[in-house]
Sequence to fold (223 residues):
Amino acid sequence: MEIEFQRVGKKYETGQEALSQVSFHLQQGEMAFLTGHSGAGKSTLLKLIMMIERQSHGKIIIDGEDLLSLSRKYIPFHRRKVGVVFQNHQLLFDRSVFHNVALPLQVSGADPQHVAKRVRAALDKVGLLGKEKYNPMALSGGEQQRIGIARAVVNKPQLLLADEPTGNLDPRLSAEIMNLFQEFNRVGVTVLVASHDLSLIARMHHRVLTLNQGRIVNDGGFS
Ligand code: ADP
Ligand code: ADP
Fold:
């Protein structure tokens, strides 16, 4: 899935300008990092892609669609095409690993056999097959984050977004999580990861978009 930002700006109702004149193009199948200090606009940029927020200026084209031309009715379809991983993984502790990963599929009303097949495939990809019946609370921080990734990919999205996915993990686990994103990218998924962990990003050898006060100040190889 391809992403294009053309001179995109976002001003919140508070008057805070979170993004300004942001332009970049992420090709189908590309992997890139989004970095910058806290408050630089990373989450806002991801929220625009997910249509959680709408831009105030400029054009965003995703998968050939101009997001401003999409009606509200289309938003759930758009979201289903995008897998999202959060820092605090947003798992539900009142249900098993299996049911956490199955959530996005149950929303779209798939049949149980298909759901079970997809959930097992997603857990297999993150190395957690066999933990379906556990409560996520019983698993380690790294494993919990991998459940979050399995849930993000269970719909086989063509675009995977992550917002500080390694924020709570030690360096070794962080590297494992980044390697997982790389594996999804290898099979053709477009991946955009927001992270302020510069040493980790530098080791990954991918494109890095650097935001500073809402503007892209660097777009290139690993910095
Ligand atoms: P980052 O993810 O890089 O930390 P954010 O996109 O969260 O940056 O924030 C960019 C700027 O926009 C910050 O100044 C932040 O305070 C502001 N901001 C973020 N969300 C909102 C909101 N919902 N309402 C008002 N201001 C916001
Ligand atoms: P239980 O141990 O009572 O089955 P679970 O939460 O693990 O509790 O599962 C509840 C339901 O979810 C199962 O009855 C089944 O329909 C489905 N399910 C859970 N795990 C799997 C699995 N590994 N394969 C297929 N379906 C599963």
Notes: Residues 91-156 form one domain. Residues 33 and 208 are 5 Å apart (CA to CA).
